[in-house]
Structure formats: structure tokens, C-alpha cells
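Model it.
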Amino acid sequence: MAKMVPRHSDYFVYKVNPHRSKLDLLPNPCPVRFSDSEVAVLSCGDGKYAVATLQLKLFSEFTFMLHLYRSKPDGDKPGSWTS
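Modeled.
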């Protein structure tokens, strides 16, 4: 059985455009890792987007950690993750 290693995981956002579709490679959020059910991709208009993950902290009933990635306005440079 293979193990998931966060630093070896890649995350992509595919932007569909009739004139110029694009596949963006997001900066690796290592050591943070998340499952598909914890992720939402939000359109911010003009080709910009945000990726949000909401995770329940270990051993806590009601404490969550929000991780947010925002694309840069020009869309050609990578954005950054914040928590």
C-alpha cells in the first residue's frame, strides 16, 4: 500500500476558457495535506480564483483550520497559501 507524502503531492486548478484554457500548478502547501472532501475552488472573476480547505483539527470537536490559496491578479505568477 502506498503512503501519501505531502511534499510529493501536486495540486492543480484547470481554468476553462474558449480562447485560452490553462492548467495551474499550485505551490505545494506541505506540510499541510487535505482530502478532496475538504476543498472548494471559488471563482473571483477575471480569471482569478481561490482554493479553500477547511479541516477539523485533530483531537478537537469544534476547532477548524482554514487554509486559503489566492491566485495572483495577472494569473501568470503563483499565488500563496495562508492559514
